[in-house]
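User: structure tokens for this one?
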Amino acid sequence: MNKVESIIKEELGKTLIDLTVKHVKDWVKKELKYCKYTSKTIIIFPLNNKNTLIGNFLLTELDNSIFEVKKEHKKIHEFYNQKAAILYCIFENLKKFDISFEILCLDNKVGASYKDLEFYKIKIHSKQNDLFKRQLYISRYNQSKSNFESYSRELKKCLTNAKYMKIWDKIL
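Assistant:
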């Protein structure tokens, strides 16, 4: 009889704990949703190692250098710079669309020129025998490298300027 009672108490305890955890999770989700849509401040909340909630955007790290921004389960953009992705989300939430658009465009340019660099690097190594094509790809690689460095400097300057705008009092 004692064994049956202890088993029942143990199962009842597990069930009670499971119900409590479920209730707390539901409450946290409800509060986050409320804060996400009604708060005047932007909430930055890390969900796990790869996902961060920034206002009503979800920032997901796909790779070391690629960050995906989603809004309501719809993909907005893949960023190549984490700071750019975070500031984009913040400025979109603050409805400063001109700054967020500038960040988005510069990040697009940096990403495209980086992909060009990778493409031409592969082409240079694959065209060892054809001297003309190799020289052509080296020339294009150098141009892409110049573009990449220029766009990277521009993006860095934009992010530095954006950092000093009066937004930090609106972030929680």
